[in-house]
Amino acid sequence: MTTARDYYQVLGVSRSADEQEIKKAYRKIARENHPDHNPGDAKAEEVFKQATEAYSVLSDSEKRAMYDRMGHDAFRQGGGGPGAGFDPNDIFSNFGDIFAEMFGGGGFGGRQRDPNAPSRGDDLQKRLQVPFEYAVHGGSATVKVPRSRRCTTCDGSGAKSGTRPASCTQCGGRGQVVIQQGLFRVQTSCPRCKGRGTVIEHPCTTCKGSGEETIVNEVTVKVPPGVETGHRLRLSGNGNHGRNGGPAGDLYILLEVEPSDVFEREGANLHLPCDIDFTQAALGGTVEIPTTDGTREVTIAAGTQHGQTHVLRGVGLRHVNRDARGDLVVHFQIKVPRDLSARQRELLAQLAEENGARVKAAHAGLFSKLASIFSNNAE
Question: pTM here?
Answer without folding.
Answer: 0.60
